[in-house]
């Protein structure tokens, strides 16, 4: 079985660090749709780790913003599921808290952009 990635946690700014040479988790450890079987070689970040980090981000948002209103801006299409999960965690934390966090969710759609010679989006 593959070695585990190096995980560093240093307060709120801590994150998961995956070494370049780490081969990932073996596919036998997971269930996944059959139509992905020829395309996947390994799993780098299992769904549970992503959901745990998303919940912790929601907790950090609740701690940092207190009773302030927030606007969640979701970038379509790729960010939808992450945004939906984050909003659900914030709602659950708000329901189970003495503080109330008013939240509005808006969506934007962006075009892919090319780098011009100055390195800024066109």
From TrEMBL:
Molecular function per GO: hypoxanthine phosphoribosyltransferase activity; magnesium ion binding
Q: Where is the signal peptide?
A: none
Q: For this entry, list what GO says about its biological process.
A: GMP salvage; guanine salvage; hypoxanthine metabolic process; IMP salvage
Record's InterPro entries?
A: HGPRT, PRTase-like, PRTase_dom
Origin species: Synaphobranchus kaupii
Matches recorded under Gene3D superfamilies: 3.40.50.2020
Q: Which GO terms describe its cellular component?
A: cytosol
The name of this protein is Phosphoribosyltransferase domain-containing protein 1
């Amino acid at each position: 079985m593959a070695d585990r990635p190096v995980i560093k946690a240093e307060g709120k700014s801590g994150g998961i660090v995956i070494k370049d040479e780490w081969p990932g988790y073996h596919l036998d450890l997971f269930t996944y749709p059959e139509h992905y079987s020829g395309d996947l070689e390994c799993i780098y970040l299992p769904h549970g780790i992503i959901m745990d980090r998303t919940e912790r981000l929601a907790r950090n948002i609740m701690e940092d913003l207190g009773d302030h209103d927030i606007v969640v801006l979701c970038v379509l299409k790729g960010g939808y599921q992450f945004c939906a999960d984050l909003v659900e965690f914030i709602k659950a934390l708000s329901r189970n808290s003495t503080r109330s966090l008013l939240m509005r969710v808006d969506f934007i759609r962006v075009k892919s952009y090319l780098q011009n010679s100055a390195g800024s989006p066109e």
